[in-house]
Amino acid sequence: MRIYIAGSGAMGCRFGYQLQQSGQEVILLDNWQDHIDAIKQNGLKIVGDKPDCVKMTIMHPTEAHETADFIILFTKAMQLPQMLEDIKQIIGEHTKVLCLLNGLGHEDTIRKYIKEENILMGVTVWTAGLKGPGVAILQGKGSINLQSFDTCGKESSAQIVDVMNQAGLNVIYDEDVLPSIWRKACVNGTMNSTCALCDCTIGEFFATEDALHTVRAIIHEFCEVGIASGVKLNESEIVDYVMHVSEIAAPHYPSMHQDLVQNHRLTEIDFINGAVARRGRKLGIQTPYCQMITDLIHAKEHILGISK
Ligand code: NAD
């Protein structure tokens, strides 16, 4: 199977590496020139659980020409529209496209380019990091829940699930993936933005009653908006899940802290708390916490001189 990874940062490298190791033809697509040069010159270096170094094909998205059997999208959320525009030429009648980006509402962008029966939406608890250009940090284990966007595509998705499972990616075909996508968005919406704003670890943020009040208020807004959008969400179950994740991840700075505070990169806030605030406005639901957090993250992006 010819598989393109559209956005080959930390997660794209993990998935591309595992799929290539399992015998698939994998092409990494990316726009970060130092990363492309490093992989072309030295191969992709893996550090972490099982250090390795492998030769991998990598190119700019617009340089890819052969039709894809399968494309995995792994840009940051705000890079997705441009990536889809840049890979139009490799999308064929039967090309399956999987989106595992964090955040909400990506299907609205993807369906402008891909037939609904070929879109797979999902969520993953695999993680990855980048030590620098061409060096991926792969630690721990994970899994993926995915579902065909259109029920017509369910049968033809079976081959994708098989291929990914042969690569050890632990995929489950989920008959209703939306609640899992929203639950993960709640984790990101309570930890990422808050720890980036407070410049602290997850454990430090979750240690005070003031912070926990904010966490519960954010989850309430996500659930009100999600349920009004037809997603089956159980608020108390999500609160328990978020608290559980906060304990496991206590010593870590979440990815938005790494992006904004440590690396001065734009954040995915418009697709997490910002997405809930936008959808809430359309539905007539008040989301003051999500709106304020989105505004504050944008203010911080502006202060750091990295606004759009
Ligand atoms: P990433 O930032 O590592 O890569 C995304 C894009 O940004 C890639 O094209 C990459 O080349 C580019 N990039 C990265 N560092 C750069 C730099 N210093 N200069 C220029 N370009 C740079 O993103 P990711 O962590 O792979 O995440 C992709 C998607 O998956 C996001 O939606 C994220 O929220 C989600 N996600 C990430 C993780 C994780 O553990 N990293 C886990 C689950 C979901």
Explain the overall architecture.
The chain has 308 residues and is an alpha/beta fold. The protein has two domains: 2-175, 3-Layer(aba) Sandwich (Rossmann fold), CATH 3.40.50.720; 178-304, N-(1-d-carboxylethyl)-l-norvaline Dehydrogenase, domain 2, CATH 1.10.1040.10. Helices cover 46% and strands 17% of the residues. It has twelve helices and twelve strands. The protein has helices at residues 10-21, 33-42, 80-86, 106-110, 154-166, 178-198, 202-205, 209-228, 235-248, 255-262, 273-283, 288-303, and strands spanning 2-6, 25-29, 44-48, 52-54, 57-59, 70-73, 96-99, 119-124, 129-132, 135-138, 144-148, 171-173. An eight-stranded mixed beta sheet has the order 5-2-1-6-7-8-11-12. A four-stranded mixed beta sheet has the order 4-3-10-9. Strand 11 (144-148), helix 5 (154-166) and strand 12 (171-173) form a beta-alpha-beta unit. Helix 6 runs parallel beside helix 10 (255-262) and helix 11 crosses helix 12. 43% of the residues are buried. The mean pLDDT is 97. Nicotinamide-adenine-dinucleotide binds next to helix 1. Its EC number is 1.1.1.169. Pathway: Cofactor biosynthesis; (R)-pantothenate biosynthesis; (R)-pantoate from 3-methyl-2-oxobutanoate: step 2/2. Catalyzes the NADPH-dependent reduction of ketopantoate into pantoic acid. InterPro entries: 6-PGluconate_DH-like_C_sf, 6PGD_dom2, ApbA, Ketopantoate_reductase, KPA_reductase, KPR_N, NAD(P)-bd_dom_sf. It comes from Fannyhessea vaginae DSM 15829.
The number of helices is 12
CATH architecture group name of the largest domain: 3-Layer(aba) Sandwich
Helices and strands, in N-to-C order? EHEHEEEEHEHEEEEHEHHHHHHH
Report the structural category. alpha/beta
Order of strands, widest sheet: 5-2-1-6-7-8-11-12
EC number: 1.1.1.169
Keywords: NADP, Oxidoreductase, Pantothenate biosynthesis
InterPro entries: 6-PGluconate_DH-like_C_sf (IPR008927), 6PGD_dom2 (IPR013328), ApbA (IPR003710), Ketopantoate_reductase (IPR050838), KPA_reductase (IPR013752), KPR_N (IPR013332), NAD(P)-bd_dom_sf (IPR036291)
Catalytic activity: (R)-pantoate + NADP(+) = 2-dehydropantoate + NADPH + H(+)
